[in-house]
Amino acid sequence: MTFRRGARIGVDVGKARVGVARSDPDGLLAVPVETVPRTDTAAHRITEIADEYDALEILVGLPISLSGNETESTRDARVFATELASLSARPVRLVDERLSTVSAHSALRQSGRNQKSSRSMVDQVAAVVLLQQAIDVEKSTGAPTGALLQPDQEPR
Questions:
Q1: How far is residue 20's CA from residue 127's CA, in Å, rounded to a whole number?
Q2: Rounded to whole angstroms, how far apart are CA atoms 59 and 143?
Q3: 2 within domain boundaries
């Protein structure tokens, strides 16, 4: 099994903020980058970040419910990912991110932060969690994680 070498960008899409993380080219570690306000320029900023790190691809978390159903947040993430795919020259993949935000809150609580003090960081930590999970899956299977979006693909 081979792992495609190259930095990756992980994106956790929220209504108010978008958490961004990156990996090193060897996929050893995912780290927080920034929290981008969810404005009309958010997708542009994320493509800039992907360019800054010469990313191989952008992985957008798809918040599917525990029962496997799509929600309003799932549709919102698809729309955002489609916008990213239309702006970026880099591939955009949708990856299942069930429980990444829950894991992020748990990790922040264990580090001694309360929910209010960690609000600005939780999106970045959720992006780290989903990115690290995607890297781990690719390393164990040898196949890229998630569904590749085509730039002209309509969100479902």
A1: 6
A2: 14
A3: no
pTM: 0.86
142 CB contacts (<8 Å, ≥6 apart)? 1, 2, 3
Confidence bin at 65 (pLDDT 50/70/90): confident
Averaged pLDDT for residues 41-60? 97
Higher pLDDT pick, 118 / 126: 126
Number of domains in the chain: 1
Which residues constitute the domain of residue 25?
8-142
Q: For residue 15, what is the domain's CATH number?
A: 3.30.420.140
- Which stretch of DSSP H or E encloses residue 95? strand 92-96
